[in-house]
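User: Please predict the structure of the protein below. I'd like the answer in structure-token form so I can feed it into my own downstream comparison script.

Assistant: Understood. Taking the following sequence of 334 residues as input:
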Amino acid sequence: METLNVRPARLWLLVGAVWLAGCQPSVEKTSANYRVFGTEAQVTVRHPADRSPDAVLSELGQHFQRLHRDWHPWEPGALTALNQGLQTGNWASISPELLELLDAAQTYEIQTQGEFNAAIGQVVSLWGFHTSSYPITTPPPTPTDIDRLIRNQPSTLDIKRRIDSSGEVLIQTSNPSVGLDFSALAKGAAAGQACDLLAQSGFDDALVNLGGDVLVCGPTETPWRVAIQDPRSGILEVLEVSERLAVFTSGQYYRYGEWEGERYAHVLDPATGYPIEHILQATAIHPDPILADAAATALVVAGFEKAKTLGETLGLEEWLVVNEAGDVLRMGPD
């Protein structure tokens, strides 16, 4: 079981290139650290000195652990059980929370014309990326094995649904290559739920940081300062955020494999089944954290030229893409 560590935040917070601004003297900051979704997470709350958020932060830790278990793409849980059911070709029961992720995945697959595809979980597993140990040092899959899955063009749009007599939602697919992997949606959904849970307890002035993917809960009178890391070194941009806003980044430099001197990153092209090259990082900024999470991955897949219009299609407030040469595409408000 992951551990929860709640403590007063006495210094400036710097986790995943995020800085938090100072507060009024009558306001305190309390932070909680969690290990979920394969990363270090931190939630920081600004609150009156006479109101402690410790109880809700502890509750949030338990909530994160449940989501981590239910949405995990390879460890036993609700998602792996669902994928096993889909492999039989029969109708499988899906929970309301997983159905929400599937709805989002189908919407974004359509909007991105397949640049975002949460149905390629089997291909991700084939490359060895269903692991917590990096770098991967085992041989990459053969072209034959990749083609075996990709030739069926797995898509979330291959999934049908119906409601049984009890009102339960069931899903089914006849495509044997479909494997659901919501890794590019899970942190966005979890961050949104975290802000909602905090707000229910009266703590709106908070920041959720899931391994550098940030959601400012808001609104707040004192802005939070959110920095976007440059994948080479330094900072690309610093935002001052007073309203609900997600800043999510998909990077190619932490999760990767190496074999015979060749390095390959974890974001795969759904059309080919091969790792994306030439793009180091993409950042998507939008009030909806699920959209920002999905968009960051889609921008990496799209690359420089397509990313110019893809961000507009998705309605992003701002987006940044960095290629291997260090060029930065920055789109959004002037």
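That's the full token string. The longest helix spans residues 289-314.
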